[in-house]
Amino acid sequence: MLKFVIKGLIRDRSRSFFPVLIVTAGVLVTVFLIAFMSGYIESMVRQNARFDTGHLKIVTNAYAEKISQKPYDLGFIETEAEFQQWKEDFPSVRWTPRIYFGALMDVPDDEGNTVEQGDVFGMAIDFSDPSAVQDIHLNEALIQGRIPEAAGEILLSEELFSKLQLELDSTVTLLGSTLYGAMSFRNYIISGTVSFGVHALDRGGIVTDIEDARAFLDMPGGASEYFGFLPSMVYDDDAVQEIKQEFNAKYNDEDDFSPQMLALTDQNDMGFMLQYMGFALGLITVVFVLIIGIVLWNAGLLNSIRRYGEFGLRLAMGERKHHLYNWLLVEALAIGVVGSLIGAALGMGVIQYFHVHGFNFGVFTQDTSMMVENIIYTNLELKNLLLGIIPGLVSTVLGAMLAGIGIFHRNTAKLFKELET
Known about the structure:
By secondary structure, the chain is an alpha+beta fold. 52% of the residues lie in helices and 19% in strands. The protein has two domains: 2-47 and 272-420, no CATH class; 56-229, no CATH class. It has a six-stranded mixed barrel with strand order 2-3-8-5-7-6.
């Protein structure tokens, strides 16, 4: 039966060309949107984990309440022993200390007089730990110069470096406040520039060694946050939640400076954002099914009008209405399969292109603090193709089901009238 249906569709292109074209276009658009949104979600999770949340994070209770402000004065000091204990208790997680701080950067001239001043956002990592350097892809982000090798050297964002017309190995002064609120200032040598591809960081960020930051902020042996990463570097919420519950049950109490563990989804509204994005992906599928189903319903109605003579003759010859209705559904399924496969193949080509070259999303993130890469790459996974193919099949069958209902409304008088004409 299916072979006979396919032959009929091939020979009578008026019954198949337009529906196949609609399904192809719909599947192509849906597959690309799903792949793009999936890539966007991965980028958001990846960048937040690298620069702001980790897969897990240990902070003090007081710090957690104001975590968006990065209040390093509510962070840890002299916690080397505790840090070693946490690493022993949770060996499956790789831990690294970080300090985030704000400061005023003063750019002097040759005589020491101020030429420029501006606010900067500082991120301090452990340069002696290769994993900590790799976490933020520092080597890949390096534009000019080199990674700091000695105390008193910093990296400056390429955008800020160019804006201030600085030179490598020039000296700048950071002015800020210590953990205890006292004024602090320190001279630094610019050893290189970086661009992370995240506009929120590239506007005015600096990267320094954590020991330099501890000295600048008067935080001996401390950190504002301890980042934790799973071995695979892929976020797994189930595993993370289990570790979080175990840690907090063992170490967290009501003291303001006792350690508290947070998951990625507990920070930056990431839990809500991931749920929202998942809902959006489902909504795209539903909207596609409804829109294409309605279009194909109308196309089926027009096609049914043209084929009234055929339907009438088949019914007059004794074919049951249920059999004729099922025949239309098989035709629709064949159209859906062909259109979905063509659309998926074309979509695969588009996805592959943007998976390699990416989509420049930086123009949309210039005025946002969201941790999203400027270049978004589509997610090249089989599930994205299936999410586009399945709705393509469902929509064609849905359209045929709605259009074919008219078969059951036929009556004998109208049938003979159609046969006479």
